[in-house]
Amino acid sequence: GYFYVGSSVLRGRITPDQLLRAAELSDSFASGELRTTTTQGLIIVNVPERHADTVAREMTAAGLPVAASAFRRGAITCTGTEFCRLAITETKNFARWLVEEMEDRMPGFEQHLKLHVTGCPNSCGQHWISDIGIEGKKLKVDGKFVDAYYFCVGGAVGAFQAIARPLGYRCTATEVPAAIERLLQAYLDERNPSENLRLFFARHSDTELRAYLAGAAMAPVARDLPSGKVPVGVSG
Prior knowledge:
By secondary structure, the chain is α/β, with parallel strands linked by helices. It has seven helices and eight strands. The mean pLDDT is 93.
């Protein structure tokens, strides 16, 4: 007869007022406990069934949506250049913009999706264990360096654990939503019955997935390797 109510905290950023409101709801309708998750979420536990809808509604009203989109639920970001000296790209504002763009572009997409943004090869954003992971780079455009991202897909933990595959595709940060839209639209158009995103990625070659991202066939781009030791099983 007890439930948990989980909300998406986009980018892991929450205001004092939001956290206080969550605490008030937990005190009033549950056991007074709050838990944070490894996916930058917030959970109220031990909620009696009769209060579950009320807690969910009030959390959403506080800007902590319970029924969030697939993109918002699965988004994780590292700190980025705002506070990290090792980061190459800004990630927090970019991730918010990316999620909002994807919600506008593909409002009906409901497949479970882990979308991880990391600002450098060190992978604090855990892009190696995400369905779609993007790694921060710099590209020179019209003589100026701009934020860019390199794509990896197919990572997972648990029973189907796998290291994400580097696809040899990168683009400027502003082009990322269009690339993801092309990839996910290809999945929706070509998937087999009951085929989830992970199986779709596994069924296609790097060349095919890179073409979906780019919108046309293209040669792979080498990934800039980190200066430290590369994780076991990762190449490219």
